[in-house]
Write a structure and sequence with these properties.
With 361 residues, this protein is α/β, with parallel strands linked by helices. The chain has 18 helices and ten strands. The chain binds pentane-1,5-diamine (N2P). The site of pentane-1,5-diamine (N2P) has 9 residues, from strand 9. Pentane-1,5-diamine (N2P) binds next to strand 9.
Length: 361
């Protein structure tokens, strides 16, 4: 017994030696980084990077509110971050450990301060819009040359959706973005906070839900690229990645991303450190690494999202910095709206509404 006990102790020592390498656990959105940056971080810092992905703020929020997620860095969207800050989910950033904060872009930091006053808890990773991805040829085949590919009528008019169901439509599985879009389609305030207004979105979405092949928030990239679907209500950069994957596959599919004329959501995804992060020091190192101008630009060039990093701009490819659907011009900006978090009671009601809409009851 004694011998066995000694062996166990020796094995434990050995294991500690091997596993003694410092680790940082990062939880980011899927399809949201140039993966060569992960190896670069490990090489530069000697810290082992454990990188997991999600595709929904709701999933991230459930983990954060439960506590003990084990993550050191997470990337919620501003409107969710605001509610999570109030719930005590995050620790304040230690600015002395983030020299690359000097690279950040005031314009974006100021916009984000709406969600994180004083930018105390977060820094911007990427920002973008939510709009319509279209396989132009397929949609015109089904709806004709006048197909309203620049309008929310494409996805909220049941007559259009009934026809489009032949070639396939995906919607994001998130009430926090589909409901504001339905409100914008109705000419209501997309940032409505009261259930009376919010409920007006229900019949609009319910009327087209039977024609939605899937409510899902990451599969639409490949589905669009492969020609399995012809329309996706989704995120700007993801749809631009689908465009590239179609080109790489050489299947001739022309995928475009459109900001609907009725307006689109502009959102901000923020790097933040949970209050109970196991390794806050390494978390700061990861955030500072991502705020390096060249690293940030490498990520944007790969995922087709804009970042809140001003210094990165000189390293951006022309098809990123020069594309108004990524870096919007004044005209495009005037079509964008932002949203604020629903209060917990409204949020519960919305989640019930969403389940009901999706189940078609
Ligand atoms: C990345 C999608 C991130 C945008 N695939 C959602 N905020």
């Amino acid at each position: 017994m004694k011998f066995k006990g000694m062996m166990t102790a020796a094995a434990a020592l050995l294991a500690a030696g091997v596993a003694g390498a410092e680790e940082v656990h990062v939880y980011n959105w899927s399809d949201y980084i140039d993966e060569s940056l992960l190896a670069k971080f490990e090489q530069e810092t000697g810290i082992k990077l454990v990188y997991d992905v999600f595709d929904s703020n709701e999933i991230l929020e459930t983990k954060l509110l439960a506590g003990g997620s084990g993550y050191d860095v997470v990337v919620p969207t501003g409107s969710f971050l605001q509610r999570q800050i109030q719930a005590g989910v995050f620790q304040k950033l230690d600015r002395s450990k983030l020299p690359n904060l000097a690279n950040m872009w005031d314009l974006i930091s100021e916009r984000v301060a709406k969600y994180d006053p004083g930018n105390e808890y977060s820094v911007n990773y990427m920002w973008g819009t939510t709009g319509i991805g279209v396989n132009v040829a397929k949609v015109k085949e089904v709806l004709g040359e006048d197909a309203p590919i620049n309008s929310l009528a494409l996805i909220f008019d049941p007559a259009n959706m009934e026809k489009l169901s032949q070639c396939g439509v995906h919607f994001l599985d998130t009430p926090s973005e589909v409901i504001p879009a339905a409100l914008a389609y109705l000419g209501e305030n997309p940032d409505a906070q009261d259930m009376e207004t919010i409920s007006k979105a229900e019949p609009v979405i319910a009327a087209v839900a039977p024609y939605v092949q899937k409510f899902q928030s990451s599969e639409f990239i490949n589905a669009l690229a492969n020609g399995d679907i012809c329309v996706a209500y989704g995120w700007s950069g993801d749809i631009l990645q689908a465009r590239d994957r179609a080109v790489e596959a050489g299947n001739g599919a022309e995928i475009v991303y459109n900001i609907p004329k009725e307006g689109a959501l502009m959102w901000f995804d923020q790097l933040a450190i949970p209050a109970d992060a196991p390794n806050p020091d390494a978390a700061h190192k990861f955030i500072n690494f991502m705020m390096d101008a060249q690293n940030s630009a490498a990520a944007s060039n790969y995922v087709y999202y804009a970042s809140g990093n001003k210094a990165a701009q000189e390293f951006l490819n022309e098809d990123v910095i020069g594309d108004p659907s990524i870096y919007p011009d004044e005209e495009t900006l005037s079509h964008l709206y932002t949203t604020s978090p629903w209060d917990p009671k409204v949020n519960r009601d919305v989640n019930r509404l969403w389940t009901k809409i999706k189940s078609g009851t």
